[in-house]
Amino acid sequence: MPRAPRAVPTWLAHPLRWQRLPVPWAAVVRGALCAGPLLAAGLATGHPAAGVLAGLGSMLAGVNDRPGTRRRGIVHIGLPALASAFGMLMGATLQTVGAGWWVVPALFAVGFVSGAGSVAGPVRSNAGMQMLASTILGAGMPLSGAPWLKALYLLAGCLWLLLLRLVFHPPRPAGGPLSGERAAVATVFDALADALDAVGGPGAEAARRRLTAALDRADEALRLRRLLRRRPSPGERLLAERLAAATALCEASVALLWEARPLPARIAEGPRRFAEALRTGRPPGRLSAPETSSPARGAFDRALLDAAVVFARTEPVDAAGADGGPAVISGAVRPGERKPGDQREPGAQRTPGDQLVPGERRESGDQLTFGDQLKSGEPRKLWSGAPPIRRGRSMFGPAGRDYGLRVGLCIAVSAAVALALRAEHWYWLPATATFLVKPDLGPLFSRTVNRFAGTVAGVLVFAAAGAVLDGWWWPALVAGAGGALLPFATRHFALQTVAITLMVLSFVHVSGDPQAALERIVDTSAACALVLVVGHLPRLADPRRRVGHKVTAALRATETYLGEVLRTEPGHDRGERLVRRRAAYRALGEARAAAETAAAELVAARGRNPDWLTVVTAAERIVDAATACAVRLDHGARRPTPQEARRLCEALTAMADALEDPGRPGPPALAAQIPPVPGCATLTDVAAELEHLRGFAGAA
């Protein structure tokens, strides 16, 4: 009998994964106009050091030049640019004072801060990584100039690319202003249509995750729009209402996904018409006829009609309706916000977001808003669409300390080895380790293999270019080619390494080290070996310490949303429920990304850890079922008793506690079997997934 073929281990298959993405032609043009021309300008004017530093800054900024709105570019490029300049200032100062071996503890400190910042989000993580890389290059590269001048040249290169992004952008679509934000919201409707097409099929859950990611990007685009202005324009508020309409449609679509009944193709036409209306500015046209074959289908058709009303308006509403309408859901208006002149009925209770209007007195028992609390001196509490701060996100929490220790130790060891072996060109080893060891960037073994392969390929291409080309200008030409390749190279880390290697070797060649190309292969090999050894030390490689806190936070966000669903009465404000659902899915997305990275590590310690991906998948299904439950409760389904609701929420809390602190004895809610909920299929599914989770939490 023939043997079944063995599956390739995830850690071995991960280095070969390739992302399929559209070619960002605008970013390719920007990349071609940055590092190469800046280096050529420095050489032509007799200031090679300035050209190298400006080109280096544009290279670091190019790594962060991803598709999105212009304001997103300002944040995602600008913050790392400032961090890079600060790092260059620190590194150049160490070089100026002749720090010698004191560089090792200094780099450990900078590496610790850089690694700890990995838990604070992708933007600050990239800023920390580039600050560390700039510190190493500033301390090691033999470039003339005062430290502050080097930092200024580096920052100028970053700002040059940012200026190109702000000036050269695609033409404004027919829909009018807010082009990037409109495109982000239109992508949500496209992802919604794809999710509806996938209902009842094997790709339904993956389509729902893509829809969640699209909602996150659109929400970020609109929030960044309000970064520098307190009051949004009418166009921004109208776009926020349309995003809120998409959010309500997404809730109903998740309920349809839970029902798992394939839908007619015409159901997805409505969201696609809305997406086209956002891109062109034209009306969406006729929508499909409503149908009430199930509560989820009735909720979807009602949300579709509400969305049609929103798209028919040319001016935004100033306040939300009683059901927590679009302005509240999107964050354009806070819950209960009223215009001056609106008065409450005598004795009416204020809601948590209800604000005092001019001339109105606060009654006893009123809950205070942020502005009221500032006047009264009471503790601040402000409603926000963003998820609450979660344990484990602090730079000085357990995960932050572990991340910082891993990065700091790897950088310090590689710097010490490099100083002992080749003191004149020591910076390449720790610089290579910087782009490998950050825990949030991907599996360590996969990045190490791709880094080595990309470096070898980049060195060979650079050596071939040097053998064929001649003159002072050819390093600038190679740097320009690397800059143009960099935006396209985001598909694979090895290809990205090729682009970066071409640019860095051009900078090193101009700096006075023309024979450095072949030495880079030896240095990269040593750095990869050091990172593999140090990065897989027992404490630093334990997935529980890097993934457990995110999974725990996701379970707590899931419990909060489930409690909100079971607590909200029909006819009451839905805004808070929708906000909690978005927070739960956002936390689950972060947990899934961390779990997938941990599953692809070479040393995953699987015998001592739960199957994190299974835990996250079960929690996602709980949120899906809770969403379907909310829709059914809105349509008059039987409400669970307080005892049933409390039992489900307590079980989920107990599982989060067990995963967070495995050494603590499990609570009674974890040991007791979770029975189904009679007469409620959605909560019975919640109970079944909780029972599935209970085995993992108990094993923990």
Total number of strands: 0
Ends: how far apart? 39 Å
Q: Radius of gyration, Cα only, in angstroms?
A: 27 Å
Q: Strand-and-helix sequence, N→C?
A: HHHHHHHHHHHHHHHHHHHHHHHHHHH
Indicate the structural class.
mainly alpha
Strand content: under 5%
Instruction: Sketch the major β-sheet.
Output: none
Overall 3D geometry? globular
Mean pLDDT over the full residue set:
80
Helix content: 55-70%
Helical stretch tally? 27
- Give the uncertain stretches in residue-range form: 319-392
Short descriptors:
single chain; 700 residues; mainly alpha; 0% strand; globular
Question: What would you say this structure looks like, in words?
Answer:
The chain is mainly α and 700 residues long. Helix content is 65%, strand content 0%. The chain is built from 27 helices and no strands. It has helices at residues 10-13, 25-32, 35-44, 48-63, 70-96, 103-116, 122-140, 147-167, 179-198, 204-225, 234-259, 269-280, 295-312, 326-330, 370-376, 398-421, 428-437, 444-468, 474-488, 493-510, 516-535, 543-567, 575-599, 612-634, 642-660, 668-671, 681-699. The longest helix is centred in the N-terminal third of the chain and has 27 residues, at 70-96.
Q: What can be said about this structure in brief?
A:
This protein is mostly helical. Helix content is 65%, strand content 0%.
Topology overview:
Layout: H1 10-13, H2 25-32, H3 35-44, H4 48-63, H5 70-96, H6 103-116, H7 122-140, H8 147-167, H9 179-198, H10 204-225, H11 234-259, H12 269-280, H13 295-312, H14 326-330, H15 370-376, H16 398-421, H17 428-437, H18 444-468, H19 474-488, H20 493-510, H21 516-535, H22 543-567, H23 575-599, H24 612-634, H25 642-660, H26 668-671, H27 681-699
